[in-house]
């Protein structure tokens, strides 16, 4: 009767654990992410520039060579590759937990039992047995213990806890690979941006030097005017001061060129050296630019995919933390030689083996498991918010870049007209000054205005290329290139 009651009690506990396990093994409910709109604002074309290979978008051969060098030598990209290897090791570690752990063991030890203990009395009394030969006599008073063999332990993944950890590690591996893709996209965009900044500075330097020549001619002219009594020393000083100021701009621009070249070389993973480039006036700009369908952008943009995979990884960890409350089935086994005499250790009679299985579940102190579950839930929720934020950020960047391209194109046309008008004004002011119909201040102002307008036109042209590059990066272009 007592045995039957024990059996019923054990059966009830097992049924309760299994019922609880089925409930805890249910998938964790996860909140939905934000829904993407069907199209970008003012964007209807379905073919986006992000589908282009970067070589097709950046046709400048000098720029293509720089991007190739950066993709081979950039240190951030090399670091990202090592992070992938670390994540791959995490997957192998999680996968190894699904299989038995078998280890070879060589151990030795001993113990002296108290004379007034069950082991002490039992060992003493055993030696008087007539059934024992000399080899089986127990050493006294110190009892050695030697073992050579294999020990194994294995947690059977009955609830899928270990598989959830493996899935989390695998998603992290994929997320790390997407992080590398994001670095590739950002690196291509950064190299291209610095390149166009460099060629724009070259153009600015050419404009400044052209204006220096014009201003030097104006200084000589005003000196001749002074000698003829048609101008004074103040006019000479004003023209000379303008020339000195422009020469200062020349030196400042040269320093900017050096700084941009050094920064670009840093991206290429090499020491400072001269960057070969093509003039800004020879650069081509795409006639038609489209962002494409937002859903396609979500599939292409690496940081969105990375955030999604990290969200899935935290979800799997949350599931694993929940399943940690369930009983775990562990199997242990050993096979080897065991003896209390070293000279008999490898005797056939010393072969020992054993196996045991146990089902254990936390019952009383489960604070650590609850804390781990709360942490996993918070991380999963934070990952969801980060995923939503990444989507919103992507749409904001694309929308801003599209508008920037549109407005820059308009500004470029207006600035080109302004430069043309001001260049005509410089010629007219010089003729009027020579005939006495304009003052030297008007000539100085005209020269200064045309210099500022030409530099602004160069800046707007550069910003147009930068806006194109930023749109390409925001759409996740460039990373498809095989490296």
UniProtKB/TrEMBL annotation:
The keyword Mitochondrion does not apply. GO terms for molecular function: efflux transmembrane transporter activity. PROSITE patterns: PROKAR_LIPOPROTEIN (PS51257). Residues 1-25 form the signal peptide. InterPro entries: MdtP/NodT-like (IPR010131), OMP_efflux (IPR003423). One of its GO terms (cellular component) is plasma membrane. Keywords: Lipoprotein, Membrane, Palmitate, Signal, Transmembrane, Transmembrane beta strand. It comes from the Bacteria. SUPFAM superfamilies: Outer membrane efflux proteins (OEP) (SSF56954). The keyword Signal applies. Coiled coil: none annotated. It is found in: Cell membrane. Pfam families: OEP. It is a lipid-anchor. Gene3D superfamilies: Outer membrane efflux proteins (OEP) (2.20.200.10). Belongs to the outer membrane factor (OMF) (TC 1.B.17) family. This is TolC family protein. The lineage of its organism: Bacteria, Pseudomonadati, Bacteroidota, Cytophagia, Cytophagales.
